[in-house]
Design a protein that fits this description.
The complex is a heterotrimer of chains A (209), B (486) and C (259). With 209 residues, chain A is mainly alpha-helical. Chain A has eight helices and no strands. Classes of the chains: A mainly alpha (209), B alpha/beta (486), C mainly alpha (259).
Chain lengths: 209, 486, 259
Amino acid sequence: MHATISSTTDAAARRTPDPRWRPVDIIVAAVLAVAAGVVFWVWDLVSNPVGAPIEAALPGLQGIINGPWLFAGVLVGLVVRKPGAALFGELVAASVSALLGTVWGPLTLVSGLVQGAGAEALFALLLYRRWGLGAALLGGLGAGIGESILDLTVWYPGAKPLFDVLYAATTMLSGTVIAGLGSWLLVRALARTGALSRFASGREARARA
Amino acid sequence: MTAARAAGVRAAGWGWRHAGRRAWAVRELDLDIAPGERVLLLGASGSGKSTLLAALAGVLGGADEGEERGALLVDGRRPEEQRGRIGLVLQDPDAQQVLARVGDDVAFGLENLGVPRDELWRRVQDALDAVGLAVPLRRSSAELSGGQKQRLALAGVIAMRPGLLLLDEPTANLDPHGVAEVREAVERVADDTGATVLVVEHRVEVWQDFATRVIVLGGDGELQADGDPARVLVERADELAAAGVWLPGRRVLDEPSQRPVGAPLLTAHALAVGHGRTPVASGLSLTLGAGEAVVVTGPNGSGKSTTALTLGGLLRPLGGEVAAAPALAGDAGPAPIAWSSRQLLTRIGSVFQNPEHQLLAASVRGELAVGPRALGLPDAEVASRVEELLARLRLDPLADANPYTLSGGQKRRLTVGTALATRPQLLLLDEPTFGQDAVTWAELVLLLRELADAGDAILAVSHDPELARALGAREWPLAAREAAAR
Amino acid sequence: MSLLPALRTGALARVNPVTKLGCALLVAFTLLATVDWVSAAVAAVLETAVLAATRLPWRTVLPRLAPLGVAALLAGITTTLYGVPAGRVWWHWGVVEITDGSIAFAVATALRIAAIGVPSVVLFLTIDPTELADGLAQLVRLPARFVIGALAALRLVGLFFDDWRALELARRARGVADRGRVRRWAGLVFALLVLAIRRGSKLATAMEARGFGAPGPRSWARPSTLGRPDAAAAAIGIAIAALAVIVSVATGSWHWVVS
């Protein structure tokens, strides 16, 4: 089947993107987000008992582990390429981990909202037309900015400015690298499996390969 | 069940090419199906049957997902403009329930169509009655058996009162009991509503009495044969068999010659198996000798898959024991569950029901190399084993392809190949023939026969009565359990 | 395995999920406006009293609450070490500075996290996803297609857990389970996502064929309504938030988070 990929770039990929969501966009976005929510939840279980006591003693550098919680929005945005995808993805992922049970309670939803909005804002700045590595990194950065603001007001409201700066910087770095670069690599690998053949993101990557 | 007006289908020079592909999935199709006809649609894998069904259901996607030619009309109108008039049931029982509870799930389509609440719940109950699914509306759909899930999907479709019913291999993943349930439900629904039915299936036997017409698509997506079932199935028997269609009364493979059974490799004694703490099967005893083939049979929920996983050293026995004879265990202990992952490789190979659960690498070649590399074999040896298997499994043209992009039959051969790459003496397979057409089926069976002839032991979990016969295998029936909701 | 079934016992079962969510968010945002131990302690005490009155099975609730306690404690430790210094200095070593001020902030932070977390853990425990989706679409008027899409995807969680288990066993069968935990974990996540997308695409096809996304008005099989239990729950939620504010302001403890 891969032998039948046409060598010319897909005409559809060059057209102005259609902002309307197809049913398959909604469902695959939701399913990816749900899977991400399960990953969040498992990541909580695995990472908390080991890392948490150490993290608690760090002067703000614990932001570096925030990246994994930021990837859902960027990933869903990169896959379906629709306005609102990053917000929807991160919000659904957060809701699922909340339903499965997290320590953050309704704040998980607020986190999802803020992280998703951060990534969404930067995708919107690019007018939903660019979905390459640069866009992915920016999306991750945006999610990191949102997360930093929220965490510093909710979790560490009484911290010193130095802590605030370190926490925000490491969170943004982690968001850019893990959520941004990570999601970009993930989408590329997913596209190679043929699973994204109903999406422009999948067809472009396969046409290049 | 109130009857809906049956729909007619008309294709005029119709074709479809998926975005990014060079070949047309279906092309130049001319077809007329009168209201009320019951059509069995046959053809080789890749002949565009599923594409045609998806197009008739109006779910192929818009212009950015492919290129369309000619016209394909249901009642003279485009399918995507008439939701509810056309119903579609797919192969995978797990991928079709939308909502968690049975009643809600049937109601889903009606909600989308804007059916008022009072009428909606009446139609839900009617639809469940029509498919013979007598479970409470609040029952969780996850607790249903495969056959029940497919009947639930059918109920969700017929509640919308479609004039055209499209069934894409609705029984391919079911056990014989489930096949009969679904077959019977479809016939009853068709009789009650008079709807036009179009069914795709490899196993002709199931549907030949039901169908009033057979249509065969050729390998290049063109119409190959069309007409009365009795005539087409006889006249075109050879072509159909070559295309992987199972024809009634036609044996795909002859029985193998008798093999001597060698020394015992693995024994199970008073074994109890289960995923959690509660056993799903217990009191199991078995001796498996070199060169022996065993097929584990039994109804859904009798613990066949769990038994295979336990025998394969992947799950801990909940009671009794699994013991490997020294001939199999070598320098490792007698209990496979205590072996390391690496020690398992050269002793017991396990092939899962869903090949995608076992894929690890980004290419077919890399996939075959995973096991030999884990054994720490020298590069030259790894390469030679991989090349040998690529040729033997006829996967060499696909060596650099991503394993996920292979067809179902190819994926199955690949996962069998990954197990063979480390040369285990015992091979366990879970439903290796599910959803396969007759051609890929025969390839797989011949491969397994070769292994048994060479002195390996084979244990396969399967509902497929033909498999045991063609392998010359002994049957090991597991008793039904009154499995309450899983 | 499927999503944990919602607890359907006790008074909370009759409250619309939207009301529960609203109450949890109201308390959360109120407490977020301030960092002081008084408001958090008032809320926590009242919540415990309400929780006791709902008669939920403790055996189910307590294990869910335990991680919350740990998280609150850890955030407290961080703030103790790195909080804004004020008053007496107890210990000073590099960037670590434990002072009266940082300890006070730490206590407030930990209590606040607990007070925000308790109601939500309990409320989420009793929320049925289908009812929540009905409420969000019909009462909150979130876009129906997206709410239903998320709900349909949620049903796949049970299958994901089955997949996860099979994927783990398969790795043992393939000889790669002896070491390399991190890499194996990454591989499992990737395989899970591929399976998820495949299932999602099939599900989307089935849903579209059943009219999902079709133009025209939609009807609702299950009406989502608000009634007396919702009024009572809302009153309790508002009372908790209001009392926390009143007591805090009256005692002069209120401390705006952004000041």
